[in-house]
Amino acid sequence: MAKKKFAKDSVTIMTEMVLPNDTNTLNNLMGGRLMHWMDIVAAIAAQKHSNRIVVTASADSISFKQPINLGNVVTLKAQVTRAFNSSMEVFIEVTAEDIPASKKIMTHRAFFTFVAVDQNGRPIEIPEVVAESEEEKELYEGALRRRQLRLVLAKRMKPEDAQELKSIFNLEGPTT
Ligand SMILES: CC(C)(COP(=O)(O)OP(=O)(O)OC[C@H]1O[C@@H](n2cnc3c(N)ncnc32)[C@H](O)[C@@H]1OP(=O)(O)O)[C@@H](O)C(=O)NCCC(=O)NCCS
Fold it and tell me: Does the beta carbon of 151 lie inside 6 Å of ligand 1?
């Protein structure tokens, strides 16, 4: 198995049109449908990186700031930001487009975590990510901090072991 893979090789783009069956009673896209699409596009990106079966381990908080309307075309772009041992973080960006009105807006950004598993569902090691562009490097750098935050919240890491978070919140206290 390759020890390292480029972040760009995991890029996955999915396009959907919002149809009546995807909407709530206000004719806007249902949040659950959007999360379903996000899960699929992110899982494909994670599979591309790991060449393994992957399972969703977590989805970071998603907020719905503005509605996506019936008839809009939704584009979801996913890319693996960083891989750890068996888990990898995937960044997802969602845009909604009203093609007749020539309007396109970025509506959501989210991070999901996937774990690569073997045929028995046991976590298995995956290649490291090589970040090349400035944006990929920025996402790569922030991934360790986000991982520690989600593991602390999931009670899988003790807060005192989360070194990256300590430096952000200056939990070590003033040095002078
Ligand atoms: C995700 C899963 C494979 C982890 O299995 P586990 O026995 O807890 O394995 P481990 O403790 O060795 O953790 C494996 C990796 O998952 C990561 N992980 C586990 N829970 C996590 C969470 N809540 N958020 C982020 N990462 C998590 C660990 O950090 C570890 O990462 P690493 O190998 O890169 O260091 C297991 O919990 C599972 O199968 N969950 C159900 C997945 C599923 O069905 N998803 C669909 C939702 S309906």
Answer: yes
Pocket lining: 117 vs ligand 1, CB cutoff 6 Å: yes
Model confidence at 140: pLDDT above 80 = yes
Report how far residue 35's alpha carbon sits from residue 56's, in angstroms, rounded to the nearest whole number: 12
pLDDT in tens, 3-40: 999 999 999 999 999 999 999 999 999 999 999 999 99
Would you say the CB of residue 57 lies under 6 angstroms from ligand 1?
yes
Residue nearest to atom 26 of ligand 1 (CA): 57
Which of ligand 1's atoms lies nearest the C-alpha of 87? Answer: 34
Ligand 1 contacts CB of residue 115 (under 6 A): yes
- Cα–Cα distance measured from residue 45 to residue 49, given in angstroms and rounded to the nearest whole number: 6
Place of tokens 């991934």: 143
- Token output for 175: 């040095």
For ligand 1, whether the C-beta of 87 sits within 6 Å is yes
Centroid of chain to Cα 54: 13
Q: Where are the beta strands (DSSP E) in the chain?
A: 4-6, 12-17, 53-59, 73-83, 87-98, 103-117, 128-130
- What pTM, to 2 d.p., does this model score? 0.94
Give the model's pLDDT for residue 171. 61
Residue pLDDT, tens place only, 128-139: 999 999 999 999
